[in-house]
């Protein structure tokens, strides 16, 4: 069966480095980070964590939706808002951006050929609030939307209903590989003719309850200096900076792109996935699962390793994870004497957990259209374990032709996505 081509036609972004595509691109060019102190940590003497990749111009800190505020250009009905978590607000605004960016009509959105895949860990903050309220006041004093606003499927529940989605829908939960999995399966739906269009919606809170558990895992940096707190590939890296936000991608078939006369950001050539089968939280020390995922993505895309110009690495700035990925890249590319350019944009965005795969896919697509290759910031002393890799220290004003974007999650879930630059007419 002939596979149909898959294109990215719309992007919406609410993030630590910008709430619109233009700002994100500018910050990628100049490698400006989005980290700032978080008042809730300053008030908690036990928190120890100092920095967060916070979304600006949104106030969703309260557990009561009536207290939330967001930029005036976005419209969210009250009946919709009451079913959202904080990250649902980010994602809802990003969805409005992506729809406008792709120039979609109501008929394009609500029909059996348009579906939606989401990724979210849920909202520990809203879940904790409602559980405590239930215990102290009784279940009848809880909001009827307490469940749908808090658990991991919250984005699917809300967005399928709010945007009247009639096609395929599902929520993905594979930790930091979640939204990359969503993109891969959505691409298959389009390539196999099951759907003509798919939305990928990803979101994460960035608050006290969603961040601190990762400090308990010893994965967060405790530095107050952003250049030391998030420095993938640096020999002194000591953990990542958590980040929240909402990302939406619109994927469409070639037929739909031609019918509507839109110019895509990029073509999604293919993807691959594989598991480590090693540890519940730690990547395989030799990167075996990721190297298999990369090889499968190349095969699925019908390209060779030498065709890849740039790799947007998953590298989160953890001691073990970065080395594991470096070994996987060396296994696939270095073994053939290849040195594609590599960077980790998490050095400036922070780690958005389940939204990371979608965010970095968006970064890749924005970079391809803007003719840039984003660098890897905050490297003062490159770890000798990466000295044979072509790790970029600065952004460049040329875009690659073929880009690989990696994601890895708990349990050793690995996903690699392959994107191709759209040739100028």
3D structure, described in words:
This protein is an alpha/beta fold. The chain is built from 15 helices and 13 strands. The strands form two sheets. An eleven-stranded mixed sheet has the order 5-4-6-7-1-8-13-12-9-10-11, sandwiched between helices. A two-stranded antiparallel sheet has the order 2-3. The longest helix is centred in the first third of the chain and has 17 residues, at 86-102. The protein is globular and about 65 Å long.
Mean pLDDT: 96
Within CATH, the superfamily carries the name Thiolase/Chalcone synthase
By DSSP (H or I, 4+ residues per run), the number of helices equals 15
What is the number of strand segments? 13
Brief summary of the model shown:
With 425 residues, the protein is of the alpha/beta class. Helices cover 34% and strands 18% of the residues.
List the helices and strands and how they pair.
Blueprint: E1 6-14, H1 21-30, E2 36-37, H2 39-43, E3 51-52, H3 78-81, H4 86-102, H5 106-109, E4 114-119, H6 124-137, H7 154-162, E5 169-172, H8 178-191, E6 197-204, H9 208-216, H10 226-229, E7 245-253, H11 254-260, E8 266-275, H12 288-301, E9 310-312, H13 319-332, E10 341-343, H14 346-349, H15 356-370, E11 390-391, E12 402-409, E13 413-421
Parallel strand pairs: 4-5, 4-6, 9-10, 9-12, 10-11
Antiparallel strand pairs: 1-7, 1-8, 2-3, 6-7, 8-13, 12-13
Helix pairs in contact: 1-15, 8-15, 12-13
